[in-house]
Structures are given as structure tokens and as C-alpha cells.
Amino acid sequence: MGDLVGITEFFVIVSTSNPRQLDTVIDEVHAVCKAEGRAPLRREGRTLDGWMVLDYGDVVVHVFTETQREYYDLERLWADAPRLEVGTPAR
């Protein structure tokens, strides 16, 4: 993303089935980043609206319900950016 927008290196786009899962994903992102000594620079959106954005500077995390992800369609908006598919981490 850095070459295209100059404001971040990575966009992470995540879908959830419902707002409760969205909250859980946000909580986990916060926990992992906090453990690494990172705090978000900005936070936008609301769980009830079905989307939230956490800006960590070099990484911007977009978490959507499936309906909102389809509506915003960031993949189309940033179609020129290289993609890196990431699966669910093993625990």
C-alpha cells in the first residue's frame, strides 16, 4: 500500500458474521498489538454500524460485518494494490 497511498504499508481487511464477532476481533487485535507495545493512533466506526477501523500507522485494520464489507468493497477500491492472503492462525 505504501507505494500507492503513502500513508500506510498494509490494509488488513477482516469479515465477521455479526457485531458480536466484530467486537471479539477488535479486542483480539488490541490484545496482540498491546502485547507488542503498540497502540492505535486512531479508531473509527462503531460495532453497531458493522464496521471499525484501527489505525496503527504502518498497518490499518478494517473489520466489517459481511454485509458492510460487501457494501464498502475495499478490495475493488484498492484493486491496484498487491494482495497477501492470510488464513486463520493456528492456536
Description:
This protein is α+β, with helices and mostly antiparallel strands and 91 residues long. The chain has one domain: Beta Polymerase, domain 2 (2-Layer Sandwich). Helices cover 35% and strands 26% of the residues. The chain has four helices and four strands, in the order αβαβββαα. It has helices at 2-5, 19-35, 66-72, 74-77, and strands at 10-16, 42-46, 51-55, 59-65. The chain has a four-stranded mixed β-sheet with strand order 1-4-3-2. The longest helix is centred in the first third of the chain and has 17 residues, at 19-35. The termini are far apart. The model has no long low-confidence stretch (mean pLDDT 85).
- What order do the helices and strands follow? HEHEEEHH
Mean pLDDT: 85
CATH topology tier name = Beta Polymerase, domain 2
Using the 3D structure, state the CATH architecture. Answer: 2-Layer Sandwich
Figure out the total of helices.
Answer: 4
Number of domains: 1
Structural class: alpha+beta
Query: What's the level 1 CATH class?
Result: Alpha Beta
Helicity level, as a percent range? 25-40%
- Note poorly predicted spans: none
Q: What layout of secondary structure does this protein have?
A:
Blueprint: H1 2-5, E1 10-16, H2 19-35, E2 42-46, E3 51-55, E4 59-65, H3 66-72, H4 74-77
Parallel strand pairs: 1-4
Antiparallel strand pairs: 2-3, 3-4
List key phrases describing it:
about 90 residues, 4-stranded mixed β-sheet, single chain, globular, Beta Polymerase, domain 2, 4 strands, alpha+beta
